[in-house]
Amino acid sequence: MNQTIETIKNRRSVRQYLPDQIKDQELEDILEAAIYAPTAHNDQPWKFTIIQNRELIDEINQGAKEAMKGVDIEWISKLGAMEGFNIFHGAPTAVIISGKKDAISPMVDCSAAIENMLLAAESMDIGSCWIGFAKFYFLNPESYKKFDIPDDHEVYYGVALGYKVRENSEAPERNRNVFQYFR
Ligand SMILES: Cc1cc2nc3c(=O)[nH]c(=O)nc-3n(C[C@H](O)[C@H](O)[C@H](O)COP(=O)(O)O)c2cc1C
Questions:
Q1: Residues 62-114: pLDDT tens digits?
Q2: Is residue 36 part of a domain?
Q3: CA-CA distance, 53 to 63, in Å (whole number)?
Q4: Could you tell me the distance, in angstroms and rounded to a whole number, from the CA of residue 44 to the centre of ligand 1?
Q5: 106 domain-assigned
Q6: Which CATH number characterizes residue 130's domain?
Q7: Which of 41, 52, 77, 87 would you call most buried, defined as having the most Cβ atoms within 10 angstroms of its Cβ?
């Protein structure tokens, strides 16, 4: 199997991390991969806010969980109330991805960048996880000021990055009846 496809198939959402910080060069390579994602109209409508300060990561975790508690969806409110749950799974690096709201398709563009980040991380055996829950912290407008997210941006997602505690687990079963050919 070629190496890119192998990396794609090996990537897993990692939910346990070593406390050691990843190297600056590794982070730079991951961020460089992010900005090489395709974007509609070549808008490149994103900002990546990199947080490697434990207290700040925890502030986002606490704020997100507080907001999650009030959500009408039971599994989300339960996670918000769960004491041991950390939305970044204890990762030493959190990246917040925001997009310029008036671009053509900022959320899709940012999502393409995130997938590049996850694959770049896996190619270096660094653990990663796409963090939808990060958005809950950014429901509070004050959070935009605190993290210098531009007013014309919306925070879509977070990404957790760090060294893996263990080898990747088995991939969740993939549905295979999703292809239809017309030849
Ligand atoms: C938009 C999006 C949001 C996600 N949010 C979270 C999250 O907040 N926390 C988490 O642990 N995983 C999150 N995930 C990861 C998925 O749960 C995971 O990709 C899925 O279960 C398949 O597992 P795999 O990534 O190991 O293949 C998210 C994935 C996507 C695409």
A1: 999 999 999 999 999 999 999 999 999 999 999 999 999 999 999 999 999 99
A2: yes
A3: 16
A4: 23
A5: yes
A6: 3.40.109.10
A7: 87
pLDDT of residue 1: 86
CA of 79 to the centre of ligand 1 (A): 14
| Atom 3 in ligand 1: residue holding the nearest Cα | 132
Query: Which residues constitute the domain of residue 38?
Result: 18-163
Cα–Cα distances in angstroms (integers) from residue 29 to residues 76, 80, 132, 140, in the given order: 33, 33, 23, 31
Q: Which residues of the chain have pLDDT under 50?
A: none
Chain segment 80-92, per-residue pLDDT in tens: 999 999 999 999 9
| Number of domains within the chain | 1
Mean pLDDT of the chain: 98
Question: How many CB atoms neighbour CB 10 within 10 A?
Answer: 14
- In the reported structure, the alpha carbon of residue 175 is separated from the centroid of ligand 1 by a whole-number distance in angstroms of 16
Domain membership flag for residue 13: no
Q: What is the 150 CA–ligand 1 centroid distance (Å)?
A: 26
Which of the listed residues 9, 131, 175 should we mutate to test ligand 1's pocket, taking the one with most ligand atoms within 8 A of CB? 131
Q: pLDDT value at position 118?
A: 98
And the tokens for 55?
Answer: 């207290």
